[in-house]
Amino acid sequence: MILGFTQELNNKPTYFVERIWEGLLRFHFDTDKEYDAFMNEHKEKFGKHWDWFPEEHERLINTKAHTIREDKNDRWKVGTMIDFFINVRQKSMFRFAPVLPVISAQKVIIVWFELFGKRMVRVFIDGKSFAMVKFADELIITGNMLELAQNDGFDTIEDFFAYFNEDFKGKIIHWTDLRY
Known about the structure:
The chain is α+β, with helices and mostly antiparallel strands. 22% of the residues lie in helices and 34% in strands. The strands form three sheets. Strands 4-12-8-9-10-11 form a six-stranded antiparallel beta sheet, with helices on one face. Strands 1, 5, 6 and 7 form a four-stranded mixed beta sheet that branches.
């Protein structure tokens, strides 16, 4: 099943392709032979390699080990094959990684609310409270919110919630053994 990834959010590059490959090279492949093949195919199609992290970026810290998506029809299940694409439904649509199975899928709920004039958000995974964030003069965080945000390809908790900025129900789709 096609799983599309954006290359830019809020006028910033996401580096999702590179982040996903960082994780694949760590957890799935012993060599970068497949990486080189897909990157060269991208260069052939687009005349350049996909976006790489700037040299000063701590690229090895933040891989993208999963994605969070709506799944109203319960289509993402263990064993469903993932087709990793950019530019979905465009002439420039491109598969940037090999087809892999969903290893696990966890239900995720994000609930926004206000308490004493401060905006707050609570994240539930598989029905259990996972994290809570209070947006005050400084962030007040309980749980492993930074880990979730970074494993989803975001640099910061703020970036994660700039994207997930309203109530949300969906799934964390894993292509590695990682679970929360």
